[in-house]
Amino acid sequence: MSRVTGTLVLAGTPIGDIADAPPRLATELQSADIVAAEDTRRLRGLTRALGVHTTGRVVSYFEGNESARTPELVEALVGGARVLLVTDAGMPSVSDPGYRLVAAAVEQDIKVTAVPGPSAVLTALALSGLPVDRFCFEGFLPRKAGERLGRLREVADERRTLVYFEAPHRLDDTLAAMAEVFGAERRAAVCRELTKTYEEVKRGPLGELAEWAKDGVRGEITVVVEGAPETGPAELDAEELVRRVRVREEAGERRKEAIAAVAAEAGLPKREVFDAVVAAKNAEASGPGKGKELT
Questions:
Q1: What is the chain's Cα-based Rg?
Q2: For the chain, percent helix, then strand, then coil, each to nearest 5?
């Protein structure tokens, strides 16, 4: 005789406009035995807007108590409860609480399903005007500058479109770091307040977007960045070769290995890349303030 367990329901919630709420959300809110919410105050606002009432127990489930509360919710699921998980906006577990609970439920062979809903990732990607056939979601970058640069260098040569979340007060620093690592001319789009009254999509090269963001930007932010170009040997000029060597050196590679790797990527002799690096070093030595010094 197979055991009877409950069901974990991950429900997408509006990222801005309440009218975007999926119809099943109201039904699940009213019928769930337990509603686990990232912010119970936001949940009350959501239910009022939808004109529904929760009949089950409401508990908080956020980053600070996720680890401690997961066993309690799994126990309820094993006992047959229907647990609805909602976050402040978008789909649970996508840069939001939920992953631990899903993993624990799967381990216990508990059914996990979802109420599809709005997604800031897909909405921003669609509005960006950048290629959408292949993309990577990178979530939030580290807050510390050094760690942020390191994370960006890991994907400097990624050819798929990149999608990031970012806090408005860190946007200018993030865009400047992206311009440094990816190149100031790499295309990008800053999407803010998606589906809300003051929705805005600012498109342009990373260098220009970094300058624009210096004046301050408000709201929920999603950044979409064009992937690295599929360049052939003839398309890589000396400046780009030097930039790629620098990115690898700053990530911890020795110069000899960095030059060899860049040469292999570009399909060029190592001597050609080496000569470009030496020429750049000599140019910087003869003229102060012309760029980063190669040491």
A1: 24
A2: 45, 20, 35
- What the block records as the tokens of 243 is 């930039």
Express each pLDDT in 110-148 by its tens digit.
999 999 999 999 999 999 999 999 999 999 999 999 999
3-state secondary structure of 112: strand
Number of H helices, E strands in the chain: 11, 10
Which sign, positive or negative, has the C-alpha torsion 200, 206, 209, 215? Answer: positive
Contact 206, 185 (CB under 8 A): yes
pLDDT at site 242: 92
Rounded to whole angstroms, the Cα distance separating 273 from 237 reads 10
> pTM for the complete prediction?
0.76
What's the rounded Cα separation, in Å, for the pair 159 and 283? 31
What residue type is 253 in one-letter code? E
d(CA 99, CA 94): 8
Question: What CA–CA distance (Å, rounded) separates 162 from 156?
Answer: 10
291 falls in which pLDDT band (50, 70, 90)? very low
Is the predicted pLDDT of residue 99 greater than 50, yes or no?
A: yes
pLDDT, tens digit, 9 for 90 and up, residues 29-72: 999 999 999 999 999 999 999 999 999 999 999 999 999 999 99
Task: With beta carbons less than 8 A apart as the criterion, state whether 205 and 180 touch.
Answer: no
Q: Which residue is associated with the tokens 């329901």?
A: 9
Q: How far apart are CA 292 and CA 243, in angstroms?
A: 10
